[in-house]
């Protein structure tokens, strides 16, 4: 959260539709300026997905737990 004289600024996570992202093998995780969010990233499957993303070029990852 950033509070400035002109207002309050908050980053938000938004869902991207399939048409916006595209489908297929051409997407490289982390190729954009953003980060890869892995929900359930602290479990076995999430860790595997995180490794997969890093192997394909992701450099910023956010791993979250489903249980808190």
Automatic annotation (TrEMBL):
Family annotation (InterPro entries): NAD(P)-bd_dom_sf, PKS_KR
Domain of life: Bacteria
A Pfam family that the UniProt record links to this protein: KR
Domain Ketoreductase (KR): 34-67
Protein name: Ketoreductase (KR) domain-containing protein
Biological source species: Streptomyces oceani
């Amino acid at each position: 959260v950033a509070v400035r004289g002109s207002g309050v600024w908050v980053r938000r996570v938004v869902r991207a539709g399939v048409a916006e992202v595209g489908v297929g093998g051409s997407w490289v995780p982390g190729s954009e300026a953003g980060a890869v969010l892995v929900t359930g990233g602290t479990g076995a499957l999430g860790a595997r997905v995180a490794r997969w993303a890093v192997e394909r070029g992701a450099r910023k990852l956010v791993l979250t737990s489903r249980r808190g």
